[in-house]
Write a structure and sequence with these properties.
Four copies of one chain form a homotetramer. By secondary structure, chain A is an alpha+beta fold. The first copy, chain A, contains seven helices and 18 strands. Chain A has one domain: 4-Layer Sandwich (Chorismate synthase, AroC fold). Chain A is 25% helix and 21% strand.
C-alpha cells in the first residue's frame, strides 16, 4: 500500500529518484496484440524532456526509454511491460547545502518526518523527475486508446499568471514551447518567463485536458467514478492544487436551469458537465482543468528549519523550471490516458458478457 | 472492479438504491477495541437526513442505522462491520413518467448506455441517497480519528450562488440549517432558497472541509498522495465538479515567493498549501474546497431524449433539494475522514517496524 | 486489508458472526442483465444448511437469503448486490463456559492474541457459519457461469476417514446426505458417523471439486494463476489443510514421461494436470481436491489454557458436525465458482479489445 | 488485474521473459530504515542460480542483481525498490523448432490460446526463469523478517521420486546440491538424477518450508487467511500441484481427538495444525509442504499439436533440470517470506492503534 501505483486493471507501478541510477515502471494489464515500440513512447518523453527550450530547466536528460519485456516481435504479449530510463545529468553536489535543511513548499520536511530518512538529492522520490515514467506508461495508453478506440487525449496551457488563453487552436500547441493554443499570447509568455528568470522567481499555471471521441459508458457508479479517478490522477501530479471537470468552480453560482445539458435527437445542446454524468462518460468531450502552483525552487532566500528544528535561511540551487506548468502538459495527458485506459478495461470486464441492448462501446 | 468501494486498508463497500429495500455497507479494517454504538453513527446521519428543514428535500427518512456485526460488548472486534439503513419513504410512482426518458444532468442516460438496464426509481444506484452509507461509515472513521489521534474533520458551506461567507465561526455551523459559519448571511440564504422554490430552480454551492490536528506524515509519495486521495473522495460525491487543496486555483497567478509556506522554529508562517506537501500531511490544517453543481431535478421543463432516441420534454417530479450543497456538508466530512483513516492505517503498516528518529506520529 | 473479501473484479465481501444478528455480503462486479432471484441462491443454501440431516449439526437455521439491491425487475443491474441472512437459532449460553478459555484446534487463542478481544459465542467471526454468505455469493457466480458460458462446478465427498470413494457417479450426489458419489459406501459412512456420535469424536474428509466445460485461457500468468487462486480459495475454507490440482501430491514420484498430458488433434490424451497448464485453464475439466481436518469441537475433554495462561480442562458444548467435510461440499463449489467468475471477467478485461486469432473463449 | 503482482502492502510486481533483455521487479511497501545491499539479495539468487551443480540445468546465468532505487546510503527509504537482473545466456535458437508446436505439460498451448500471441523462446513469461525476481524480492522480506522480528524462513527437499527424507538436519541443507536435510539419502539422489539424465526423463519432488519464530496473530480471519495466502503463493510456483499446511492430507483419516493440538501453560503439546489456527499464526512453527511435478521438458519424444491443430511429434531441446524441485527450494522460501512480510505489515496497519491487552506481537 505504499502507493507507487495507479490503475486497477491497466496498472502502472513506478520506481526511481531524481538522482538515482535510473527510473522505471511496470505496466501490467496491457491487452495483447498492440503494435508497440520504444519510438512510440519517445514522442511524449521528448515533449516532456528537460532542457528542451530556454523556458524550462537546463538539466539535460535525453530520457531514452528502453522496453525490457512484454513485447515480442513488435507486439504486446499481454504480459507485464518493463520500461526504464537512465538518469545521466544528475548534479548531486548542488544539493549538499540542503542536506540538513528543508526547502519550504517542497516535500523535504514531510518526507523526513514520515520516513525518518530522506534522499535529499534533487528531492529524491518526491521530484517531478519521477513523472518521466508516467509519461512513458501513459504513452502506451495513448497509443491503445487512439489506435483501437479512436480516443484522443490532448492538453495545453490555458493560463500562466495573469495571461489567459483567449483563442483556442489545437494546431498551435506543438508549434511553441509553451504548449499554448493561442498564438497571440506567446510574446507575453516569453516576457513573463524572462522576467521570472531575472528575478529568480516562479509562477503558477492552469492547464486544460480534453479527451475526445470517448465512448459513452466509461466509469463506475459510486466511488471509482470517472471524474473521481481523473481528479485523483491529476491532483497526484506534483504541484497541482486544484482540479475541475467541465464548468468546475463556475457551477457555484449557476442555476440548475442553466447548468443541465439538454439532450435532443441531434445530441447534447451544451457541455457544462465536461463529458461526465453520474461518474460515467456521456460521449461528449471530457474536459478537465488543473491548477499548478509556482515551484518553490527559486533563487530568493527564505526562512526554513533544519533537521534540528532551528530556523535557518535557505536558497535553492540547481536548475529549475520558472513555470512547472509547461512541462506538465504531457504529464496531464498521460495521467488522463491511464485513467481512461483503466476504465475501458474495467468496463469490458463487467459488461461484455451479457447480451444487452446495443450501445456505443 | 465495479468500484463500489473506497479505501485500501480501511475499506468501505456500499450497496443500495434510492428506492430499494435498504442501503448498507461493510467497513473492513477498523482496528479492534474502539468503543462504537449505533448512536455514534446516528449523529451525522441526522445532520445529513432528508426532511430535516424546510430548505431541503421533503422526503422523510428516519435513516436509523443498524450495526449488524463487528462490534462485541460495545467494542469493535477488528472484523468486518456490517451496517444497514432501511428505506421507508420511497414514492416510486413519482418516477413512472421518466421510465423511458433521460433526465438531463443526471446519470439516467449514461447508466442506461453503460448497463443496458436502469433502475429509474429515484435514480437507482446513482442517487445521492447512496451517500447515507458513506456518512455512516465515515462516522466510524471520525470517531476513531478524534478519540485515538485527536484529529477533527469539519465542513461548512462557504458559498451558495453569489452569497459568500465572510465571517468564519465554526460555532455557528450547527446552529443553522445551512451549515453556514457566517451568521450575517443567513437571511440572504433563506431568501435565495425561497426564491428558488418559487421558481422551481436550483443553485450551486461551494463547501470547505478542514481537518485539524492531523499529524505530519500521512500520505504516500507518488500516486496515492493524500491530496490525490482527497480529490478522488470529494470529486466522487454526487454533483461535485471541482476540488481544491489550500489556495487551489488561486495559485495560477501566484509567484513562488508568495506561495511557499516558510518555516521557522515556531512553525509555518502561512498555509497556502492546505496542509499537504509532496502529497504528505505537513501537520498544518488540511483545507479543501469543493464545488457542487445545481441539481438538474427542477420543475422547469426541458428537452431530452427517450430510450428510442427521440426528442421529448421532461419535468422532474419528486421531492428535491434546491441546493444539494447543504446536505453535502456531512458527506464531505465523511469522505475526508475515510481518506485520513485509511492513510493513518497505511502509514502504520509501513512505518512502525523500524526504529527511526522520533517523529510526530 | 482486513481481508474479508475475495476476488478482484467479481468481488465478494462478507460480514457477520456465528451468534450475531445476521450475516451478509456485498457482491460487486456482477455483469448486468443476469436473471437473478432469491430462489436461485436458496438452492445451495439449502444444501449447506445446518440441521438438514441427522449426520450434521442440529442447529436449525432456515438460512433464508434476502436480496437487498443490485437487481431490478428480476435482472442484475451491474451495481453492487447486497445479500443478508438472519441468524435465528443461536444458543449463546452454550458458550459461556468457554468465555475465558481457548478451545484447542479452534481460532479462539489466535483471535484473542491478534485482536485483544474475542466474540466467544460460537467462535464469532471465525465460525464456519460465515460460509453461508460464501455459498450465497457463489450461487450468483454459479448461475452466471452455467447460463452464460456453460461452465458447471460440482463437488462431492471423496473420502471420509478410511472410507474412499471407488465408484464415481455424479447422479448419486444429491441422493444422499453425504454428497457421496458412490452408493456402495453409504452404509459404511452411516456407521462411521454413528460411531463418532457415540464416542463424541469427529473425523476428517477429502472432497473433490470438478469444473467442467471451462474454456481455455482463464488465469493470469505469474502470481494470480488460476491454480494459485483456487488454492487460496479452498485453503481459505474453515478446517482445510491441503489442496491439490490434478494428480496433486501424486506427482512426487511420477516421471515427466508419465505426467505430461500429450495432445493430439482429438484432444488431450490424459488429464494429470487437472485442467490447468502454466496457471491457465487448458479447456479440460478442472479437478481439485481438498483435505478437511476433523473438527476440534468434540465431547472428549482436553487440556487448554485460559486467558490468564493457566492450564485448564475444556469440553466443547454446543451442536456440532461430526464431519465438517460433508457440509463443505457446497462451500467448495461456491469458492471455485467465485474464482472462475473472477478470472472470466479478468480475462475479458484484458483481452477483448484487440482483434487476435480466433480462440475458444 | 493481469496478476503479475503479489502482496497487498508489501507488494512485489515482476516483469521479464526467459529470453528477454532482462528481468526486473518493483518492491513497494518496504518499511524505511532497513539496511539493504545487493549482496544481501545475491545470497539466495546464488542458491537458485542455474548451472550451479551438475544436477541442475546447464544454462549459465550469473544472476547479478542491481538495486536501482529505494535505498539511500545503505538504507531503505520507504519508497519503491527497483531491482533488475540481466539475461546473458539465452540460446533462443534452441526454441525455433517449437515455434509452431506446443510442448505438452507446458504453458505453450494455454498462452497461445489466451493471448493469441506467444513468445516461444524458452517459454517466454511462463518460464521458471521469472522466479529469479521472486527470489530477489523475497530476499528483502527475509532480511527484514529475520533482522527486525527474528523470523527465519527455511526450506528443503523432503522427497524426490520414492526417496523420502528420514533424518532431518537443517545444518545439512546448504552442504549438498539437493538442499537435502538427510545425509544418508545423498547417494540415492545422485543415482536417481544420473539415471534420469541417461534416460532423458525427469522426476517430481516434495519440499517442506518451515517458518520459525513467527509471532502469534498474523493472518486475516476470513479470506486472506495466512494459510490461504501461503497456499496461493506456493501453488503459484511453476510446476507445483499440491500444498499442505501441517498434517495436510493426513488429516483425512484423523480423529478430532488426535488432531487438535492441546495447550498447556508450557505451550502446545503438538503441531498438527502447522502453526496456523483459524487462518492466524499460533506462534508455533509454520510448516508447509508442496509437491512439484516432473518437468515436461525431457528428451523423450511425444505427441502434440501445432498451431494449425495437427498432430505432430515434439522433443524438447534446450537445457533443463531433471528435477525442478531442487532449485525451487529458495523460491519456496521467498514466497513464504513475502506472504509473512505482507501479513506482518497488514497486522500493524489494523492493530497498532488501540491500546489493548499485551500480546506477543
Amino acid at each position: 500500500m505504499a502507493g507507487n501505483a495507479i490503475g486497477q486493471i491497466f496498472r502502472v507501478t513506478t520506481f526511481g529518484e531524481s538522482h538515482g541510477l535510473s527510473l522505471g515502471c511496470i505496466v501490467d494489464g496491457c491487452p495483447p496484440g498492440l503494435d508497440l515500440s520504444e519510438a512510440d513512447l519517445q514522442i511524449d518523453l521528448n515533449r516532456r524532456r528537460p532542457g528542451r527550450s530556454k523556458y524550462t530547466t537546463q538539466r539535460h536528460e535525453s530520457d531514452v526509454v528502453k522496453l525490457l519485456s512484454g513485447v515480442f516481435e513488435g507486439k504486446t504479449t499481454g504480459t507485464s511491460i518493463g520500461l526504464i530510463v537512465e538518469n545521466t545529468d544528475q548534479r548531486s553536489q548542488d544539493y549538499l547545502k540542503i542536506k540538513d535543511r528543508f526547502r519550504p513548499g517542497h516535500a523535504d520536511y514531510t518526507y523526513y518526518q514520515k520516513y525518518g530518512i530522506r534522499d535529499y538529492r534533487g528531492g529524491g522520490r518526491s521530484s517531478a523527475r519521477e513523472t518521466v515514467m508516467r509519461v512513458a506508461a501513459g504513452g502506451i495508453a495513448k497509443k491503445y486508446l487512439k489506435q483501437e478506440i479512436g480516443i484522443e487525449v490532448r492538453a495545453c496551457l490555458s493560463q500562466m499568471g495573469d495571461i489567459s488563453v483567449e483563442n483556442f487552436d489545437w494546431d498551435q500547441i506543438e508549434q511553441n514551447p509553451f504548449f499554448c493554443p493561442d498564438v497571440t499570447k506567446l510574446d507575453a509568455l516569453d516576457a513573463l518567463i524572462r522576467s521570472l528568470k531575472r528575478n529568480g522567481d516562479s509562477i503558477g499555471a492552469k492547464l486544460t485536458v480534453v479527451a475526445s471521441n470517448v465512448p459513452v459508458g466509461l466509469g463506475e457508479p459510486v466511488f471509482d467514478r470517472l471524474d473521481a479517478d481523473i481528479a485523483y490522477a491529476l491532483m497526484g501530479i506534483n504541484a497541482v492544487k486544484g482540479v475541475e471537470l467541465g464548468d468546475g468552480f463556475g457551477v457555484v453560482n449557476q442555476y440548475g436551469s442553466q447548468h443541465r445539458d439538454e439532450l435532443t435527437q441531434q445530441g447534447f445542446k451544451s457541455n457544462h458537465s465536461g463529458g461526465i454524468l453520474g461518474g460515467i462518460s456521456s460521449g461528449q468531450d471530457i474536459i478537465a482543468h488543473l491548477a499548478l502552483k509556482p515551484t518553490s525552487s527559486i533563487k530568493i532566500p527564505c526562512d526554513t528549519i533544519n533537521v534540528d528544528g532551528e530556523t535557518v535561511k535557505v536558497v535553492t540551487q540547481g536548475r529549475h523550471d520558472p513555470c512547472v506548468g509547461i512541462r506538465a502538459v504531457p504529464i496531464a495527458e498521460a495521467m488522463v490516458a491511464i485513467v481512461l485506459m483503466d476504465h475501458l478495461l474495467r468496463h469490458r470486464a463487467q459488461n461484455s458478457g451479457v447480451s444487452i441492448t446495443p450501445r456505443r462501446i
